[in-house]
Amino acid sequence: MNVAFFPLMSYSFVNSVTPGPNNIMLATSGVNFGFIRTMPHFFGVYLGFLIMLGIVSFGLGEIFTQVPELQTAMKYLGSLYLLYLAYRISQAGELSKVNVAKPLNFFQAALFQYINPKAWVLASTIPTLFVTGKAMGYEEIAYLLLGHALASFPSVLLWVLAGTQLRRFLSSQRNLKIFNYTMAALLVGTVAIILLS
């Protein structure tokens, strides 16, 4: 095996547990919709990224190298979508009325990975940093996917659980609005960082 497996797991855990668009949206969904209704969103993020990592590891990530304009377009599309989600989060209603709203479904969350700049950066760096041999075959790709899968599952799920636990403390309309506006502001801040980088 030509994969630095344990450093990969450490890197994946740290990158998956830190705040970013996915984690902010998952925590917000946990607060507004609860654990069960957020699980399709969680699995969309989790499996959507693993598929992206597989695609990049097989070399299709080279498209960005060949067509840099595509990466720029994806950056702006992703930023627009994050602004839309920030607006949607800021407009979320009372917890008691949340059954009329809808969390992201599996496919929406999975497809979001392909316009999420943080996901592209992570998917591009994992094969570059942790394959120790010159060639990358099926075995190396399998280990990359396994290492990331093991490390990211608990770290991303932690955000859903944190949101779900906060749900009890945000039963008042005022506290929920403050939380949703804060999460929306964090997404807007994320967009600013993306566009300035």
In short:
With 197 residues, the chain is mainly α.
Question: What features would you highlight for this structure?
Answer:
single chain, 197 residues, mainly alpha, globular
Descriptive account of the structure:
It is built from 8 helices and no strands. With 197 residues, the protein is an all-alpha fold. The protein has one domain (5-196). α1 runs parallel beside α7, α2 (21-60) crosses α6 and α4 runs antiparallel to α8. It is globular and about 55 Å long. The model is unreliable at 95-100 (pLDDT under 50).
What's the layout of helices and strands?
Elements (H helix, E strand, L loop, with lengths): L4 H13 L3 H40 L1 H5 L1 H23 L15 H7 L4 H14 L7 H32 L3 H24 L1
Write down the secondary-structure element order. Answer: HHHHHHHH
User: Could you say which structural class the secondary elements and strand pairing correspond to?
Assistant: mainly alpha
Largest sheet at a glance?
A: none
- Coarse morphology: globular
Using DSSP, what is the number of strands? Answer: 0
Report the total helices. Answer: 8
| Mean pLDDT score | 82
Q: Tell me the number of structural domains.
A: 1
Measured between the Cα atoms of the first and last residue, the distance is: 35 Å
Instruction: Please estimate the helix content.
Output: over 70%
Global Rg: 17 Å
Strand content: under 5%
Unreliable stretches, pLDDT < 50, 5 or more residues?
Answer: 95-100
